[in-house]
Fold this protein.
Amino acid sequence: MDTWVILFTVAVLVFGSRFLLMEPWLPLKLNETVQQLLRFSAPAVLTAIAAPILFIRGDQLSLSIDNHYLIAGIIVVFLAQWTRNTLLTVVLGMLSFLVLRHLL
Amino acid sequence: MSQAEIVHHSSNNEKFRAFFKGAAAIIPLTVAVLPWGILTGSLAIKSGFDPVQSQALSGIIFAGAVQLAIMGMIQAGVGLGSILISALLITSRHFLYSMVMRKNISPLPLRWRLALGFLLTDELFAIANPGQLQRFDRWYALGGGLCFYLGWNLATLGGIIAGESIENLDALGLDFAIAATFIALVIPTINNASILVCVLTALVTSVICEVMHIQAGLLISAPLAMFAGYAYARARGES
């Protein structure tokens, strides 16, 4: 099949997943329970994407001090708590990750 | 639908200011994905796509995880049905984002819904969701979305130009940058016990899914974490 046809079909699918449920003509009523549930969507999804990156090394759960992803991740948690500044946290977090990588 | 929570700007000056505020807010996230964009562009070339197709992956699909997943499948000659099912699994979290943003974006004119819908990535959702941005501002969201789109596509272009000369970038530990930005965004939003319960549930269940090699574990861990947070809030009578 033509590569362009596949690319455009996938693009339509991805766009649809982002666009469709925001359309006003769609009879989607979000009741109070759903609204309350959705409040938790950002912390749930972002944590579920980030956690495996920190805790899994080579298909295995790694809770050791040698896991510099995990140690740097813990440092980022404290940086975020103290600085409350995303850019500063990410920059200092990446620095500590690179230092740990070099040391460990 | 509470219109009161949506910002309306009276002057162009204010629109520009909101636009650049949104762009500034997404800069750390853009920087964190630049290496991934480079990797994606370079991998596309290595997988045998021509430069225009490689750029189109980022330009029209604009979803890193989907792009990486389908590249190999297309080149291996996998059927369109299987490609679409894989893409749907990976992209399904966007249904959740758009449901959350529905309250704010559905009252906007079609051109805004099309633009913000196209730009609604993990990163834009991360800066513009109601927990992060109490009063939704379309210009702020557009600034953030376009800045991220530009960054992702320029990085892809860099990867296409570098092509074969890019070594195995993932061996450098670039995935940590993504984790760091998401942590930096989530931590300040943990302002009550139910969100903490949600975060801890997401952490434990996502790691378990990964250890058990469950494909699309996000579809299990994210809903579980949302229910856990909600149930805790209900039990505690949190408002």
